[in-house]
Specification:
Elements: H1 2-17, E1 24-27, E2 32-34, E3 45-50, H2 55-75, E4 78-83, H3 93-100, E5 105-108, H4 113-118, E6 125-129, E7 135-140, H5 146-158
Parallel strand pairs: 3-4, 4-5
Antiparallel strand pairs: 1-2, 1-5, 3-6, 6-7
Length: 159
């Protein structure tokens, strides 16, 4: 019986942690949205945690931006970028996005509550969710070429 309860507890904990937690964050226009509202039909979602001061973060998002339209056409994937900039840097988010021409949904997790609940350390930290909003892959840090590995994972879950 004890073994059963331990197994059940681990299953519940793993299941609870493998979905998008419910946290209120802001759009880049200052509106509040709950992360449980993130939606892409039954298609995959990429979620990238980043900051304006993080060079690898900006590099990763820029490299994905170059192929994002093709990825969307082929797999219907959606990228959601979550800035963890503090309030001192919040005013830099929107100008940076506009200057880079990023077409992603971008949100601001100013107190890093969402990032904490997702277990983000360090940034960039990228998650891939399947059509059921279950985490199927996550990767902290960034090295050029990581976007190719990410796309391979997207193809695996959309085939």
């Amino acid at each position: 019986m004890k073994r059963y309860l331990i197994t059940l507890s681990l299953f519940v904990i793993t299941s609870a942690c493998s979905q998008i937690p419910s946290v209120d964050i802001k759009t880049i226009d200052g509106r509040i949205i709950n992360t449980s509202e993130f939606e892409n039909g039954n298609n995959p979602i990429i979620m990238s945690f980043w900051a304006t001061w993080c060079k690898p973060c900006k590099e990763e998002l820029a490299n994905i931006n170059e192929v994002y339209e093709d990825w969307q056409e082929e797999t219907n994937v959606k990228l959601i970028a979550i800035s963890i900039d503090d309030m001192r840097n919040a005013s830099k988010i929107k100008p940076l996005i506009n200057s880079k021409g990023w077409e992603y949904e971008v949100y601001h997790d100013s107190n890093s509550e969402f990032a904490t609940k997702m277990g983000v350390k360090p940034i960039p930290h990228t998650f891939l969710f399947d059509g059921n909003k279950q985490i199927v892959w996550n990767h902290p840090g960034y090295t050029e070429g990581d976007e190719d590995k990410l796309f391979e994972k997207i193809l695996e879950i959309t085939e």
